[in-house]
Every structure is written in C-alpha cells, then in structure tokens.
C-alpha cells in the first residue's frame, strides 16, 4: 500500500504539479492498508479446475533514477480470503518498499 501511495503521489506531482506532502502520503497509505485489511474479496473465477500458465520471464531493472513495482495476488479456494503484495525496487534492484 505504501508503494502504491508513493506512486499515486508522484503522479499527482508530475501530472498535476501538486507539491509532495510525505506526511499526507504516509497517512493515506496507512488508511488504505486499514481499509484493505477489513475487506473480504469474493472469488470471481470458478476454481474447480484451475490452470496455471508458466513462462520464464526475468525481472528487468527500470531506467536509471526510476523505480519499478511488481505485484501479485492470491485468492484462497473458499473465495473469502485474498492477499496481495507488492515490492518496489530502485534501478539497482535494491528493495525500497515491500
């Protein structure tokens, strides 16, 4: 949630020229995390016979001075529990947030 809020704040700065307020960004991230933790996401896809496609892709670093966020989601078969995670890395591959 923190990485997503940083991305949103960055876009607001770049595209709308609104100044960056780090305290507000972190407060919004915490509020979003609290809201998300209360959610129960229903399963939208029947899981009777799931298939998984596997391909061999490799992580590529973003341009110099940039960040890259990778995320994934998992849903339990009961359709009541879900988990998402994200990781934010810099151009050297160092984890910034996750």
Tell me about this structure.
The radius of gyration is 17 Å and the shape is flat. Helix content is 32%, strand content 21%. α1 (2-16) crosses α2 (22-37). It is α+β, with helices and mostly antiparallel strands. A hairpin with a 4-residue loop joins β2 and β3 (95-97). It has a three-stranded antiparallel β-sheet.
Which helices and strands occur, and which strands form pairs?
Elements: H1 2-16, H2 22-37, E1 67-75, E2 82-90, E3 95-97
Antiparallel strand pairs: 1-2, 2-3
**Average pLDDT over all residues:** 75
Number of strands: 3
- Indicate the radius of gyration in whole angstroms: 17 Å
Q: How are the strands of the biggest sheet laid out side by side?
A: 1-2-3
Secondary structure tally, helices: 2
Helix percent band: 25-40%
> Strand percentage, roughly?
15-25%
- The secondary-structure element order is HHEEE
What general outline do the C-alpha atoms trace?
flat
> Mind describing the biggest β-sheet?
3 strands, antiparallel
Provide the low-confidence segments as ranges. Answer: 43-47, 49-54
- Class by helix and strand content? alpha+beta
N→C terminal distance: 9 Å
Brief summary of the model shown:
The chain is α+β, with helices and mostly antiparallel strands and 98 residues long.
Keywords, separated by commas or semicolons:
98 residues, alpha+beta, 3 strands, 32% helix, 21% strand
């Amino acid at each position: 949630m923190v990485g997503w809020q940083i991305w949103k704040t960055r876009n607001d700065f770049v595209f709308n020229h609104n100044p960056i307020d780090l305290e507000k960004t972190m407060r919004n991230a915490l509020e979003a995390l609290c809201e998300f933790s209360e959610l129960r996401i229903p399963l939208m896809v029947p899981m009777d016979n799931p298939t998984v496609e596997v391909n061999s892709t490799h992580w590529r670093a973003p341009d110099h001075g940039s960040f890259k966020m990778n995320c994934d989601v998992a849903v339990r078969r009961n359709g009541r529990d879900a988990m998402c995670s994200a990781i934010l890395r810099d151009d050297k591959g160092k984890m910034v947030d996750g």
